[in-house]
# Entry
Amino acid sequence: SERLKAGLSRTRQQLGGGLASLFGRRKIDEELLEELEATLLMADCGVEATQHLLGELRKRWKRDRLETADQLQKALADELHAILLPLEEPLDVSGHSPYIIMIAGVNGSGKTTSIGKLAKYFQGQGRSVLLAAGDTFRAAAREQLMTWGERNNVTVIAQDGGDSAAVIFDAINAAKARRIDVVLADTAGRLPTQLHLMDEIAKVKRVIAKASPTGPHEVLLVLDANIGQNALAQVKAFDNAIGVTGLVVTKLDGTAKGGVVAAIARQYPRPLRFIGVGEGIDDLQPFKAREFVDALFD
Ligand code: GDP
# Structure
């Protein structure tokens, strides 16, 4: 879509533009492949995905007798698609009611904003939504969520100075009483340097399971694309503590580091449920590998 294309424009320039200048002028040779490697690394594809892509391209160069740079670019798009396709697994909330989504991430990753966008997304599917203002670390997060809820007619359960787990416990009970379809539970963020402080969030998960024995049904980790390769460390730390079942990668619009999704796919694969490509309410989209690759190369 055009919106996705516009959103990914900086990564597109980094990758596509870099490639165009590479491919525009000559035939495929070792030097060109080396420059391609550097371009992929600069777009934050990471060493693992970059090596994999180059390995596959070298094979195809020989096997399929690729000659023109255009053919190589087409092959690159295909291989990138193959890497990303396993991450395409849309979030289906129909299996439980309420379906409880626990949302985690470091401060500033876009957690609270994404919750607002997700609420709108699920409402658009005709489902009722309730928000739990569990980010008790950042006072403004609760206000942000409450204002957003008021404006959009979505119930927000919050407490003055309560702890994260208590707020979410209350919210789940309220959702059951009101027969709500989807609970979006915000959790306390932490600083990127506090990845070792996971006791509180692990407790939140245990408390959710007490309020709803089958829950949480989804543990979503929100990652800011601008952090590039550090995203891998965040996935690992949160996964160890709470078992990440899905990812949201935000701010792909502001960065040339969109290749990070390829790094995640190769090194720490988890379903990439949504990508954020802008600050607007509709700028959170379900991830589709083909659309993503097309937006980068077409
Ligand atoms: P939190 O601390 O994780 O709850 O982060 P916030 O939700 O408050 O988001 C931090 C900032 O990132 C805000 O200014 C958001 O508007 C912005 N933001 C979130 N997602 C996106 C996105 O996909 N694109 C852009 N450009 N900005 C975003």
Summary: Residues 105, 107-113, 141, 189, 250-251, 253-254, 276-279, 283 surround guanosine-5'-diphosphate (CB under 6 Å). The chain has twelve helices and eight strands. The CA atoms of residues 165 and 206 lie 9 Å apart.
